[in-house]
Amino acid sequence: MTKQARHTKTKRYGMVIDLDRCTGCGACMVACYAENNVPFRKDESDKMLSLNWLRVFKVDNGKPFPDTEICYIPKPCMQCDGRHMEGHSPCVSVCPAVATDYDEPTGVVSQIYTRCFGCRYCMAACPYHARKFNWWDPVWPADMEKYLNPDVSARMRGVVEKCSFCYHRYQKARDSAYVEGRDEIAENEYQPACAEACPTRAITFGDLLNPEHEVYELSRSKKAFRLLEKLKTNPKVYYLTAKNWVRRKADNYLEGESPADRKPAHKAETASH
Amino acid sequence: MTTPAIPEGVKRCSTRKFAIWLAVVGAVLLWGVYAMFLVWYKGLNQTGMNDAYGFALWIWADLAVIALGGGAFFSGFLTYIIGKKELKNVINYAVIIGFICYSSALLILALDIGQPLRGWFIFWHANVHSMLTEVAFCLSCYFGVLTIEFIPVVLENPKLDRIPFLHHLSHNLHEVMAVFAATGVFLSFFHQGSLGGVAGVLYGRPFAFREGLLIWPWTFFLFTWSAAAVGPCFTVMVTWLTEKVTRKKLVKQEIFQLLGKISGWMLLTYMIAKIADTLYWAVVTAPSKGFALMDFYSNNPVYGIWILIAELVVCGLVPAFILISRKGRENNTMLITAMILAVIGVCINRWVMVLQVMAAPLLPFQEWYMYMPTWQEVATTILPVAYGIILISLAHRYLPVFPQEKELNPGN
Amino acid sequence: MKIDRRCFLSLVIGGAVGTTLTPVPWKLTDDIAIWTQNWPWTPTPEKGPSVYKKSVCTLCNGGCGINVRTVKGQAKTIAGQADYPVNRGSLCPMGISATQHLYGPSRIQSPMKRTGDRGQGKWEKISWAEAISTVSEKLAELRSRKKPHTVACIAESDRGTVPYLLQRFLTAYGSPNFIRTPSSFDAQEQALYLTQGKHGTIGYDLANAEFILSFGCALMDGWGTPGQMLSASADFKQKNKLVQVEPRLSDTAALASQWVAAKPGTEAALALGLAHVIVRDNLYNKDFVDNYAFGFEAWEDENGTVHQGYKSLLKQYPPKKVAGITGIDKGTIESLARKFSRAKHSVAICGRGSGMVPGGMDEALAVFALNALVGNINQPGGVTAIPEPDYWPEMQRDKTASNGMQQPRVDGAESDRFPNTRYLLNRVPEAINSAKDESPIQALLVAGGNPLYTMADTETAKKAFDKIPFIASFSTYMDETAQYADILLPNHHFLERYEDVPTPAGTPTRVIGLTRPVVETRHDTRHIGDTLINIAGSLGGFIENAFPWGNYEEFLKQTLAGQWDSLEKQGYWVDPEFMPPAWEEAFQTPSGKYEFYPSQRSNPSGKDADALPGFRQVELPGVQEKMPLTLMPYASARIAGGAVANPPFMTKTVDADVIRDGDVFVEINPKTAKEHDFSEGDAAVLKTPAGKARVRIHLFEGLMPGLVAMPVGLGHAAFSDYIAGKGANVNALLTDVTDPGSGLNAGWGSRASLVKA
């Protein structure tokens, strides 16, 4: 642990995505690709072979015309806190080589590409399909290597990668705070590329434990929920919607069950220590 | 025709015939080797796997061969620890089959990782919380044990046996074999179990997830138990196949029956546990995560409830009852059929615990994920079979694998 | 020494054991692992300090302010410029991924001339000197034959210094044929002229509007300025601001508080029906209508003829009848009309989809009239006319040029038939194809746009292009039109060049943005402004004199001298003096008022009903019996539908039920699918009178039964193999349908059939 990290309070960085604002434009995805040097291939129509740290799903309420409604659900890595909020996210606990880790100070689940040897157990473990495998050597045609972001390394074939909440931006913010003699970084100093790029401001990002951050209130709102909460993975990505049918798309319900019966989404309080 | 390389008193086919046989199987092997190099050179894009199917045919093959190779540890356990001396008549073959299974498993594992050249990180940077780490350690250690168990069998080749050092080595190894067998049993309990744990700990995957005891999910115990139950069946099945191919009786029927009986009871108890586990999962675990049982068996082209019935009834209870009944065991057709069913049953179980886990959708707006292996995957999965056949052929030809062969085939 | 077997075995085993005891195998294992961690073919980006540079994106006409992060002179990532008055920090995915086009394989890297057949893709690299002289010789030759008017120039915009230089060049040279590529703003700007008497850019103050009634505008998928629309949409849902009229549940409809699924092509009827209710119930703004509007009531012209007014026309559109036309129930029409008239700032907008097709004038005028009824003109949250830039220096021209300029335009714009229409690119193919002898266009300069991709009925357009003896393209990318040219004079990428971007369409303020080089020029390209100056210089005489600047940058700085400081510093300039004029002085129509009865509208029949905005069903091409379905294109924010194709990043975001394995999916309602025996994923052939395409079927409940919806922007045949060959181009399946009074393309769709492939 670095010197300055010891000074700072434990953080649980999280995201709140307002589904009633999302228009499905895809700016978040594209910004993520550009920021994180996500490669591309000539044909990416097989989404299970397409490297996507963030994917926006389109869902509908299944009702016939003209009562149909649609909603877009952006799905980055959920940065799960794990069953007992102690960082044993589904993926971290299974990695045989400690190539993925739960960062205690921030709650971000990291991936060390040079450590990963590509067993893909973490992918089998992740219920969100947030983890992506480099099935091919990445190729940047023409001069496209030139746009690669120097803050993020390009991944070699045969390793798993995933959304890091743009952790390199956190490191940069922390470093400049350190240089300026500050212990804490401000809310707007660390924002992942997707949140920054969202043109409808549907994505809010910050420390879920910090009452001064916008996500604190939002994640505790009545409209907040998370994906597959019943699995007890405890994601740090929250969603907002006023629509019950959208909430039904986020988790599995037995006959007669309803999202309305669910307890409030937020559990992050228990993690503050 | 007898050359000094062939054990005394047994008849083997002509070199020419043997060479043709080897060439045919060797061609299949080469096909597999070609696919293997393609995968290593070009990467895992040569497979039909994708981000939904991080685990697929190969992991299934791994789990299946290790379960079937379980005959080695369980026969060893029965022979050396329980003291069923009559099983010495199959223990050599059980060890060879086990050796083939485990070496194949290791080969497939080496194929199945994206960065084979860093595969050793699993040992160097081991995460003790990961079931896969446990698998890797136990698997490698047990493979070492199997190799040690295999060496004396090899050294019994008449030519090698003539070398005094090897003769003594072989003799001494035989003396301490019980120790290795015990070590093997211990390791096997763990790695068979950890393989079960691989799926069972996935709490994000309701189809696979099982509650458990301490750090081990129930699948941990179920896998060990099922491997012990079905491993000997596979040993008998392969022996029976070898007999069919060589057109010779190699092991006495009562040995088959004894193994059948033991397997039968093991299988029955396993089935009781497995059914209890399935019921608890279907009634408690899955619904707590919002899934009804039939959610896992509908809305897709492959995985219907039939697969559960096939695993538990047709390839579970049915062979178990055949094997525990004297009448069933004494009828050779019934005995072998039951054993084959049991082998299929455990293969289905491993398939389900790997591939159906990947196939079942989790988010309500997702569909079932379907997977089709490429020829490269199929070829590399057949590769160990060809390699096994070759090793078995060589072993059978040059090593005194079956102590009863001479007795059963007099006049050679 | 004799080596026996035993010795050999000992050696081998001993050697093996011995080696493992040395560090060699362990070191090697480690080294190999380290090698895999640093594979030389996996690039390592060069580190360096970040430098942020402001510019303006010109990938579409939206003109969003951007902030480009550069490291060591290379552009890395692009974000919206937070304080830019148009997009306020928001940026669409196309803008964000612009670096992919900058560095990608679609760039034309130097001037080239065609060596093979047209469109064959065989090129020879040439020098700039040769390129300039080839073009100038051709132009000089036409001029010497007194045919300067047979030169045409296509551009995506007619505003800003570059389009101005193009127009200036044509004027000095002697051709009236400067043609802007079509968009829905053709109809809206004409409606603006007809009702307010002004040429200008139309501004909609959507951010301050309380209620937005959108007639099929894909606000979230590329209409107007994408960044601006996305930015404004943040509170649409929360504040129940938007009502969307269209037959498909688009991303915009999804964001609306009410989705009104009117039958396609009946938007004008709905607008008139709403106006009927507003007028019937006296819900309109009396101050505006009584004092500042003309033609609401019946009026008498100078000859004493009494003309019908808008009010009495509306009597023909009672809700019941409109319900029958549109398929919207009466109650909805009534309540919508009340909501529209009661909200404080209501604005109605039109321009179907992303606004690539102009649409008919009736529709535009009917929608404009709604805004006038509630008096929301030059008000906050309303409609405003933004004056066109007028900072151009004088010039002189010779007689050949003057004669040339007297000739009628090739496209028929500003003719007696279409007096109020400025550009009609859609009519060019027919003009060429129907010409008795040689093509009326002898040389074509493609200085923007990508007509061979974006024009309806692309095949016919291609046939017309075949007859043009000389085509020069200034495109930055090897697009479909460049691929069909004879000579390429590639412009810099927008991240490498200067350019001014005046008020983008739809923006309610008067603003100029500055596109400027954020990276060094990468290839042997040249700024189109410089190329024009070079060609002018090479032609000599008055033409050369009309271009007295050393280079484009000098001209730009000179032209925008007054704004340059601000442009340089903040990347934009906002006209501090611009205020929407009060109603008293706002209108420059013959009546000096807002004209509900557009007296200037081309009206050969002379009937009042033809001057007033009525509902006239657009006859789509094709026979209904043979083609029972109706194809409508739809826009998606994830697919660039314009001249510049999707960069790979954007295609990556497209779902597998839109494009898969090179096939495009068309949406149909499950009901339609049942009728035609289709299920999800089926391959089919989609036929229209213009052509056919292989497609696959996607069932979508959110589409009106009987329609086939197909995304715009796929099926490219050029650019690079990362872009081309994905799906089919919907434009190739559509046909131009001439709007009677304006000549604009009113064809919003086509009859179609779907058969199993």
Brief rundown of the structure:
With 412 residues, chain B is mainly alpha-helical. Chain B is 71% helix and 1% strand.
Structural notes for this entry:
Chain A has 273 residues and is of the alpha+beta class. Chain A has 8 helices and 10 strands. Chain A starts with a helix and ends in a 25-residue tail after the last helix. Chain B has helices at residues 15-42, 57-68, 70-82, 88-111, 121-124, 131-155, 158-161, 164-200, 218-246, 253-288, 306-324, 326-330, 332-359, 375-398, 405-408, and strands at 212-213, 216-217. In chain B, helix 1 packs antiparallel against helix 14, helix 2 (57-68) packs antiparallel against helix 13 (332-359) and helix 3 (70-82) crosses helix 9. Chain B has a two-stranded antiparallel ribbon with strand order 1-2. With 757 residues, chain C is an alpha/beta fold. Chain C folds into 4 domains: 5-37, no CATH class; 112-182 and 392-413 and 446-454 and 470-491 and 526-561, Rossmann fold (3-Layer(aba) Sandwich); 187-387 and 588-599, 3-Layer(aba) Sandwich (Dimethylsulfoxide Reductase, domain 2); 629-756, Barwin-like endoglucanases (Beta Barrel), CATH 2.40.40.20. In chain C, helix 5 crosses helix 21 and helix 6 packs parallel to helix 21. The mean pLDDT of chain C is 94. The chains are: A alpha+beta (273), B mainly alpha (412), C alpha/beta (757). Chains in contact: A-B, A-C, B-C.
How do the helices and strands line up, and which of them pair or pack?
The complex is a heterotrimer of chains A (273), B (412) and C (757).
Chain A: H1 3-7, E1 13-18, H2 27-35, E2 55-60, E3 70-75, H3 90-94, E4 100-102, E5 109-111, H4 121-125, E6 132-133, E7 160-161, H5 167-179, H6 193-197, E8 203-207, H7 214-219, E9 224-225, E10 237-240, H8 244-248
Parallel strand pairs in A: 1-10
Antiparallel strand pairs in A: 1-8, 2-3, 4-5, 6-7, 9-10
Chain B: H1 15-42, H2 57-68, H3 70-82, H4 88-111, H5 121-124, H6 131-155, H7 158-161, H8 164-200, E1 212-213, E2 216-217, H9 218-246, H10 253-288, H11 306-324, H12 326-330, H13 332-359, H14 375-398, H15 405-408
Antiparallel strand pairs in B: 1-2
Helix pairs in contact in B: 1-14, 2-4, 2-13, 3-4, 3-8, 3-9, 4-6, 4-9, 4-14, 6-8, 8-9, 9-10, 9-13, 10-11, 10-13, 11-13
Chain C: H1 5-21, H2 24-37, E1 50-56, E2 65-71, E3 74-80, H3 93-96, H4 98-103, E4 112-114, E5 123-125, H5 128-144, E6 151-155, H6 161-173, E7 177-180, H7 184-196, E8 200-204, E9 211-217, H8 226-232, E10 242-245, H9 251-255, E11 258-260, H10 267-280, H11 286-292, E12 293-294, E13 299-300, E14 306-307, H12 310-314, H13 319-326, H14 330-342, E15 346-353, H15 361-373, E16 383-387, H16 399-406, H17 428-433, E17 443-446, H18 451-454, H19 458-466, E18 470-473, H20 480-483, E19 487-488, E20 499-502, E21 511-515, H21 528-539, H22 541-546, H23 552-559, H24 564-570, E22 572-574, H25 583-586, E23 594-595, H26 608-611, E24 629-634, H27 648-653, E25 659-660, E26 663-668, H28 670-675, E27 683-688, E28 691-699, E29 707-711, E30 750-756
